[in-house]
TrEMBL record:
Cited Gene3D superfamilies: Photosystem II Pbs27
Lineage: Bacteria, Bacillati, Cyanobacteriota, Cyanophyceae, Desertifilales
UniProt xrefs under InterPro entries: PSII_Psb27 (IPR025585), PSII_Psb27_cyano_bac (IPR017488), PSII_Psb27_sf (IPR038450)
Principal localisation: membrane
Protein's recorded name: Photosystem II lipoprotein Psb27
Family: Belongs to the Psb27 family.
Gene that this sequence comes from: psb27
Membrane topology annotation: Lipid-anchor
Keywords in alphabetical order: Lipoprotein, Membrane, Palmitate, Signal, Thylakoid
Summary of subunit composition and partner proteins: Monomer. Forms a complex with a monomeric, partially assembled PSII. This is probably the complex in which D1 is assembled and/or replaced.
Length: 132
């Protein structure tokens, strides 16, 4: 009986860890590139445009970081989107915002960066409408 439990315990632990690890917020990115990119644009705009004194600012930034991580890990090696204008522009915007969050986590986003990010997000939307 002891031998049975010693073999069963590791299997149960692996199953629990696997289920708990997979149950996180993984539904944010669906795998549909156009929908995911538009979701990213909306999420980033929300994080960028919230006033600095807003109580939801920290939560919006945390959600934006999570979206950035999921989006980048999903599409950075997808050869079908690597050459799309919308992807390269989105990647530039994501890198800029992620760099600011990493380097200056407690500082507000500078107006110059906000302006550039909004311009890049408009370019991404236009490129998605064109299908590029």
């Amino acid at each position: 009986m002891k031998r049975f439990f010693t073999r069963l315990l590791p299997l149960v632990l692996v199953a629990i860890i696997g289920l708990v690890g997979c149950s996180s917020n993984s539904a944010l990115i669906t795998g549909n590139y156009s929908q995911d990119t538009l979701k990213m644009v909306d999420g980033l705009r929300t994080a960028i445009e919230l006033p600095d004194d807003s109580p939801d600012k920290a939560q919006a930034q945390a959600e934006a970081r999570e979206l950035i991580n999921q989006y980048a890990s999903r599409y950075r090696r997808d050869k079908s989107v690597l050459t799309l204008t919308s992807f390269t522009t989105m990647r530039t915007a994501l890198n800029s915002l992620a760099g600011h969050y990493s380097s200056y986590p407690n500082r507000p986003i500078p107006e110059k960066l906000k302006k550039r990010l909004n311009q890049e997000l408009r370019q991404v939307e236009a490129a998605l409408k064109r299908g590029t």
